[in-house]
Design a protein that fits this description.
Rubrerythrin, domain 2; 1 helix; three-stranded antiparallel beta sheet; elongated; about 5% helix
Length: about 80
């Protein structure tokens, strides 16, 4: 589910809400009831649970590259030889 960031025009409070695409747009600040503006933020979703993003991709325990599976022919592969 996407996460949206809002800022209140009345009290300047910033908050995030997890909303379905089908949910009605947010127009009112939960703190003061003032009008809000939807902000543009760098990430509009969050990953939950386990998987490659949590357990494998950026979680290298040693500084070594994994063994090459294709003989070093991949673009960007350290074994490709430049």
């Amino acid at each position: 589910m996407p996460v949206y960031e809002y800022q209140c025009n009345a009290c300047d409070d910033r908050f995030e809400l997890r909303r379905k695409f089908s949910d009605a747009p947010v127009n009112e600040c939960p703190k003061c009831g003032g009008e809000v503006t939807k902000l543009i933020s760098s990430a509009a979703f969050s990953l939950k649970g386990g998987g490659w993003h949590a357990e494998g991709y950026g979680n290298k325990k040693s500084g070594e590259a994994p063994p090459c599976q294709s003989g070093g022919g991949c673009a960007g592969c350290p074994s490709a030889g430049g």
